[in-house]
Amino acid sequence: xxxxxxxxxxxxxxxxxxxxxxxxxxxxxxxxxxxxxxxxxxxxxxxxxxxxxxxxxxxxxxxxxxxxxxxxxxxxxxxxxxxxxxxxxxxxxxxxxxxxxxxxxxxxxxxxxxxxxxxxxxxxxxxxxxxxxxxxxxxxxxxxxxxxxxxxxxxxxxxxxxxxxxxxxxxxxxxxxxxxxxxxxxxxxxxxxxxxxxxxxxxxxxxxxxxxxxxxxxxxxxxxxxxxxxxxxxxxxxxxxxxxxxxxxxxxxxxxxxxxxxxxxxxxxxxxxxxxxxxxxxxxxxxxxxxxxxxxxxxxxxxxxxxxxxxxxxxxxxxxxxxxxxxxxxxxxxxxxxxxxxxxxxxxxxxxxxxxxxxxxxxxxxxxxxxxxxxxxxxxxxxxxxxxxxxxxxxxxxxxxxxxxxxxxxxxxxxxxxxxxxxxxxxxx
Length: 429
Prior knowledge:
N-(1-d-carboxylethyl)-l-norvaline Dehydrogenase, domain 2
């Protein structure tokens, strides 16, 4: 797959990820065919791509078409087919059947799935298709977030995996990790464990209070429940249901979707994409309302009553004293501090215990959480706490101590290996 003049076909151009993915490929100089159920939807997707790229010029390298009229001849010319349909395995397999019949033998097919089985999607396809098929999981919005997971299945040609990774890095400026074909891969497996856990906690403690306690000061660019609204409740459900159904690990219960979210989705409450129905939050003119889970109604958002250790962490973060902020985190007393420590230490423990199961290494887990979610790399939190102190805290909260942390304790070294770390990007005051 040559990098220059690459011809890319987007299947599902009018989906959430289709238009911005088309913008990313076109912005890299590739010729892009954006296909949808009808040409009008594809042309709407083109406008979405221009908006995502903030450049009308990307249209010069994009053509629009429909599945019925254009799929066969566009795929026949393609170097890369990027499937961006809904997370519906039968739907994807229907299109892969069509693509398999008209693609060139050297055409690479990539699914943009955020967590479905790559091997299951390839099952039953031709040998050539299976060798050239893999997952390329871009994070939303891909025009801004550069973290990318590449997911081969057992029959993917290793040469294809390498060429795709090289292209993503050299031409698209991605931060790439190669993950194993497990439900939700690395980023969503780890990230949505935390997001769903905070949704569960909101039932007892309230939405705004949880977003305050587990807010950006603990190592993320956006508070967790606001993040769920941005992602969409329906997407959130698809990811956590997939993990809950198809995995058995130490944190399986954290993936059980709260009943209030199940009800809300049925009522059309999907977060930011349904502004009238809302999600955890809802805009009412210029005002913001928050969903009162116990009352089942929205009320004006009020700033939660300050908690001393949270405010101290924020103050230290504002002046770049991140280790001192986590000293406050470690030493704070009270139920609120225990809640926050359980969530944040749970994030670190869960992420680093996926090394060897889904992630190849701790630096890979760090990379995707940093560049895919804009969250603090898990090893950086261990280093801020101190390795031995982190181990003691894992044990106190009955969390599995990751082997990579135990090894660091015996070696006496730092865990984070990612070079210069921009703490200010994720530890916000």
